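Record format v2
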Amino acid sequence: MRYWTISKWELKNTLQSRKFLLIFFFQLTVLVMMVFFFNGFMANIESQEGVGLTPSLNEFASLDVDDPQGIFKKNLNPEILKIGLANNDSSQSLKQGKLNGLLLVQNTSDSINYLSPLQSEILIDYSDPKRSVVRDEVILASNKTASIISQQMIDKIIPNSGNINEPQIQEQTTGESLPMQLIKKIMTAILLFLPLFLFGNLVVDSIVGEKERKTGEILIAMPISRSYIILGKSLAVIMTMAIQVALWIIIMLVAGFSLGNPLLVYLIVVISAVPIVGITTIVAAYAKNFKEAGIGITFAYIGIVGFLIVPALAYIAQQGNNISFSSMTLVIKIFSGESLRWGDIIIPMIFILIISIFSYGSAIWLFKKDEIVFGPRPGIVKLFMDFIGITTIIRKIKGF
Amino acid sequence: MKILALSQKESQDILSNKIYLLLIFVQLMIILGAFGLAMASSIVTDPNLIDQWQGSTIIKVGITQDLNGSSLEKNLKEQKLNLIYFNTAQEGIRELGSSMVAMIYLKNSQGDIGLETNNANVFYPVVSDKISMALNSYRLEQKLSKQGLSFQQIKVIKNPVFLKETPINKNSAAPLAIDSSYFVEIMYGFIIPFIVLLPFFLASNIVTDSVVGEKERKTFEILLMAPLSSSMVMIGKILPILSFSIMQSAAWIVLLWLLKVPVYNIIPLLVLLFFLGLGFSGMGIIISMLVDSTKEANSAITLLLFFATFVLFVPLFMNIPSIQSILNLIPTVIIVRMTSTPVIEAPVLLSFIPTVTLSLLIFVIAVYSFKRERAIRL
């Protein structure tokens, strides 16, 4: 249990740092803020017609309208279009690029009275990329206007048209829309996994810091093997992460998030921290200084995030037909209330185990090399060849 | 000249770091990935585009045999839907969720229609639009067919609006990768601000590492003793990474143009980005003065960037009319308005003022905190 001694030292140093505690609780405040905005965002998106993930583009494109009766104009979307009244300058503004579109609509009453199509023309500035927005919004309004005018035409031609029987459509939908699933499930999962990416600096400081502060020699001279040093430092960071994940889950439950089985979710998130810390440890063990380690971790975390999120997105797109190796997908399945197959649990755990063994094994192998800890550091290619044993083979061949 | 020497040293530190150069490559992958995702989701959500890209053939809609030869079947085929025929409705409903998006069947002898759809399917929005159009047309035909109306009258009632599109300035048409409103909205409304700001998020990290790293290596006092004023030292530290970030953003803008996503008003955009970068770097310096170790600095910077991402990007997805005037002053909203139009309006340039003021204020505070640190340490 010698690595436990290292873990205790690291935890004590970390928790005694007032600045660290300040940042730790500030992160919780940021979470509360995110939960608040998330709930507000969900309320906003659920109150609109349909659900979409497009940006909220207030008055994105400008459109002047000449519509005497105003039926067409009423159906235009005033949120995305800045709707103005057509005047003598509209045409000139359109050509100069100051206006995106000009909509000219015939008198609607004439159309209904004479049973002829309502003639309308949309002039669009093609030099502006927003042309497709103007076109699509006008077409949408045109379709809505067409329904209204059709009904008015029918009412004019056929007295008591309301009594005519027409086929009824009974629609039933199953499943939750894809944007809603992405927002609810993926965003909730990201919130749960976020703490795992906020403590990479603890690993960097505890390993790279020893090199920078020149205290590495003292540590290595102690009667503790280098494996235990790496494992002990990593364990301290995992425990810190576990504390914050627990606090985050409590806050999310209080805020009304439904996590299915919170204890199981917590366990899986904390277990997922093990390989993430392992990979961070490889970067920290190899890095010469904090700057290098920081950039390396950014690079590594992008890969890890992709490894977690992409299978989760694929799971949602395919509606859970396949077993996924990502622990994030497993967490989504748990809080979605889906029944789990053995493969759903075992496959991600196997991946976590393999990556953990590989990452800690590599980190320990690197940390055992004096040239890595004290310098001069060999290049990545040479290290890789050493790792896979090619250097040993070459030496043996040369020996013969 | 002394400031140039300091800037040169910082530049060399940055460029000699292979991982930093690798990160540029990672940014490139992110940009191409985001562009590809925007294209794919635009095609999947636009009925016209999906027809153009022959995507309709993979969208399967089930229909019962008793609707074979009916006007509803004809309307569905006009919408270019791939129809699969089933003997009974139950057979088709069982297939929902696997390969089919919707199942349409006759409910009774009065001609009422049953429609079961799988909302979770990625093609649901497009299929829903197409089926709605087919069903509306079918209902209208059924309603009118028994009323003695002529074919011409029914035709006008079905299509009562004639919309003619007239392009203006077609000779100088903006090159667009996909002429889709969803593509334009997602690219200009989120992805372009995200892409041009990416290099600046990295900048604050590098500045912090540079200053805190000096403290930990005990070379900070040597920096403080440099025969330069505090503001010159700050400029010398910030200038290289700011320049590299602006060059990266400019490179990404060129890349977007090559991908047929034109970005307009590049000079004012780079000016805005310069001040944003100044603000980020200034915050990095302030944090460096407050902390003693890289551990604390990187935690604080991560939080700062988190907060900044929130403040900059969440408003792009919120529609709150009561605070819209404040939201219009947020840099990302300004970027959206500026980059999406060839003709810039004066009010957009005026909305730079809060960002410029705040960034300069942060820089002044950074210089002050450095001066204070200098006074304490020396």
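Chain A touches chain B through 103 residues (CB under 8 Å).
The CA atoms of residues 325 and 350 of chain A lie 8 Å apart.
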